[in-house]
Amino acid sequence: MMELKALIFPWLLVDIKLFVFFVVLLNVNLSVSRSLPPDEPINIAIMLPRYPLPSTRGSKPWLVAGRHYPYHLQMVVPAMRIALEKVKNTTLVVPNNISLIVDDTECWLNTAQFAAIDMMYIHKVMAFFGPVCEYALAPVGRFSTRWNLPLITAGGQASGYDDFDQYKLITNLKPPHRKLAHFVAALWKIYEWKRGVIVFHDGDAHIKDEVFMAGGVYDMLEKASGGGYGLNLTFQPFNEFDYSDERYVELLERDVTPYTRGEYSNRYVLSDRLLSIKPS
Ligand SMILES: *[C@@H]1O[C@H](CO)[C@@H](O)[C@H](O)[C@H]1NC(C)=O
Ligand SMILES: *[C@@H]1O[C@H](CO)[C@@H](O)[C@H](O)[C@H]1NC(C)=O
Ligand SMILES: *[C@@H]1O[C@H](CO)[C@@H](O)[C@H](O)[C@H]1NC(C)=O
């Protein structure tokens, strides 16, 4: 848990600084390119999930309760307000009233697409911040192309977003998974590795960040192996919230432990530790 926070927090800071930067940039551009009448308000849509995310959808289990993402509304909206205040304090001030129109996407495609339509036709927004969740972003990204409105997000990393015709007005603040895949492929080549297993969490129905990340890397290495790397590459999904997940334990025992080196590779230590936390 601590490591997770340590990983997420620097990203959050980077994102917020970039948000501030983009707010400034956006307002300058809008006031120049559209010659907005000074009494016309500038509405900016913020579409992110509120914390906590619902753990059931209808009667169906959906997400493990308490899942935490670095882009919940409660974290980003205060930062956006500070950003706006900074913009208003600078010489870049536009006379127009700037409002943030906030809506909860629930990280869900359906909610996000209806919210986007309200944002456009009721609030007449001029830009979107978010959605970030990969599935929720897809329809809003396509609308933004159609409506010619900029969309800024810390998501959109899945390889589907490489389709620039569909999503040409999305600006990503994080690198696409394609970049990670290039890095892993290069590493593979340097060390002349021959056998690989891509292990990833696959338990949430509507947020598949890990699947998209693993998929991007897998696809690229597969392509690379077609190109003569001679890789033996397989993949193994498991549920990281379920310690009794047999697939994970078996994978470690069968494919990882016997072939790896180091302190934790001892077959005994590993299987004892994992099996001891299985419910009896
Ligand atoms: C901004 O909003 C306030 C409060 O709604 C209003 O009094 C003011 O006239 C608006 N300013 C402009 C420039 O539209
Ligand atoms: C904006 O300016 C006011 C007045 O000078 C100041 O109190 C406030 O802290 C400034 N806000 C930011 C975010 O810099
Ligand atoms: C890939 O590796 C696995 C595990 O080491 C082995 O069972 C399988 O036969 C290998 N496949 C190929 C095509 O070499």
From TrEMBL:
One of its GO terms (molecular function) is peptide hormone binding. Pfam families: ANF_receptor. GO terms for cellular component: membrane. One of its GO terms (biological process) is signal transduction. PANTHER family: NATRIURETIC PEPTIDE RECEPTOR 3-RELATED, RECEPTOR LIGAND BINDING REGION DOMAIN-CONTAINING PROTEIN. Keywords: Membrane, Transmembrane, Transmembrane helix. Residues 78-204 form the Receptor ligand binding region domain. It comes from Strongylocentrotus purpuratus (Purple sea urchin). The chain crosses the membrane at residues 6-28. Gene3D superfamilies: 3.40.50.2300. It comes from the Eukaryota. This is Receptor ligand binding region domain-containing protein. It is found in: Membrane.
